[in-house]
Amino acid sequence: MTQTTMSLYTSQDMADDQLIVGIDYARNPGNQFPGAHLHVAGRRDDLDAVYLGDERKTRKLRDLHFPVGGKRFRPTLEDLVEFMVTEEMVDPRPGWEQVVKDHRAHWEAIQVKAAVRRNQEDAADTLREAGWVVDPPDFDL
């Protein structure tokens, strides 16, 4: 997956002024913003006083890119569903908790495997600290 957008709006129209929260991910963002980030709707009239960016004259709260966990540990659709249910924004279907739990476990397993592949020595050290016997591969060339 190279790009994901998850958004929660107050209406099916999904107009800009109806956004509650947006979660974006781009594996290779084409700008300076973090690949995994959160947008939150709201008003902060004082943002213009601290905004030193491009030539826009004003900036809305939803224009900010809050970093959220990076490539590997970013928020998921399951997190957004849980947020909507626990904040009482939707009426959940029976069994939603188990579905979210199962999907989250699957996602986390994929991410742990990817993180271990990229950090093999750290993973081996952690397993050794937990009592595992871990030896590096033997590469005979």
Task: Spell out the blueprint of helices and strands.
Elements: E1 3-9, E2 19-26, E3 36-40, H1 47-50, E4 66-67, H2 77-86, H3 96-118, H4 120-129
Average pLDDT metric = 89
Shape by Cα distribution: flat
Strand content: 15-25%
Low-confidence parts lasting 5 or more residues at pLDDT below 50?
none
Class of secondary structure makeup:
alpha+beta
- Biggest β-sheet description: 4 strands, antiparallel
Number of discrete domains? 2
Number of strands: 4
Please give a quick description of this structure:
The protein is an alpha+beta fold and 141 residues long. It contains 4 helices and 4 strands; from the N terminus they run E-E-E-H-E-H-H-H. The two termini are 35 Å apart.
Describe this structure in words.
With about 140 residues, the chain is an alpha+beta fold. It has 2 domains: about 1-70, no CATH class; about 75-130, no CATH class. About 35% of the residues lie in helices and about 15% in strands. It contains 4 helices and 4 strands; from the N terminus they run βββαβααα. The chain has helices at about 45-50, 75-85, 95-120, 120-130; strands at about 5-10, 20-25, 35-40, 65. It has a 4-stranded antiparallel beta sheet, with no helix packed on it. The relative contact order is 0.11. The model has no long low-confidence stretch (mean pLDDT about 90).
Features:
4 strands; alpha+beta; single chain; four-stranded antiparallel sheet; 141 residues; 16% strand
